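User: Thanks for the earlier help. One more: DUF1570 domain-containing protein. Can you show the sequence and predicted structure together?

Assistant: Of course, both are below.
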Amino acid sequence: MPSRPLRARLTVVAVAGSVLVSTVTGCVRGEPEPTVSASVVGTPAVPESAAPAPATSPTVPASPPGGEPSLPPLAGALTVEGTASTVTGTVDRATLTAYAEMADRAVSDVNEHWTHTWPRQVTIIAPKDAAAFREQVGRADDLSQVAAITDGPVDATGRATRDRIVLNPDAFARLTPTGRQFVITHESTHVAVRSSLPGAAPLWLVEGFADHVGYAGSGRPRGELAAPLLTRVADGNGPTRLPTQGDFDPSQGEIAPNYLAAWLAVDLIARRHGEAALQRFHTASSVTESPARAEDAMDRAFVDVLDTTRAEFTKRWLAELNQLAAPK
């Protein structure tokens, strides 16, 4: 059947500890300086020591809307096959192999949290330079904060087909190995959900769930991971409602704290109701129609799946944010 337009996810690598993003003056690929601000911590690729919470807020988002269905091939690209991944790029083979290993791990992590039927394979495109990245995603705007874009055609059922994760070489280089693993796991979660559910849920749930999978197994306290958001809460500038779609628009201001807010909301659902209920909630909140219909579906899912209401859940979530932000 003919494909509908591309449907890509806007995601963020929300800075929350000093283990994922190197400073501009620091070593890009080595261990981070102890005082750098860094992204949310996914499952570490290698054990890393704890680091103090950053004093500054995050700046590294990961996937705005992508480009057109027909995209040019990468000239001179190599391809490495992993167990559950295919990585094609113009970087060296060792780097492609490392990305394939991260992608294989990501698929395994996603499978632990998403039991719907999906291909359980991911495709990664790894351009060597920013020009090739822009060509692949069909974008000309400022993508300096973007670590990766997930895009692919959507079929007549509303499910994504042939999704691929396109890495931004400049932003990706600023991440530590832990940060790269987080991005690939986050984006692989989008691939899984997009290919198995028609339509989409409200954006806070989509992005919060991807972060939930990315954080799994990090072993880090929520208060440490969510430090940039909790600083705002402590200052009286925290959220008063669940994030809306506009809260994830980088042109409207800093967006990383909103991703952390969405993650903590999803995390609350998982802790109070369990992973299976979280999946049912996500499924029930996904529609092929307008965002307004998705909001309506989510309101019904709060009642039918979680036996609560959006208002009651929001009240509990905000109370937990205040508790996490309170001086210890």
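User: Great, one quick takeaway?

Assistant: Residues 3 and 164 are 15 Å apart (CA to CA).
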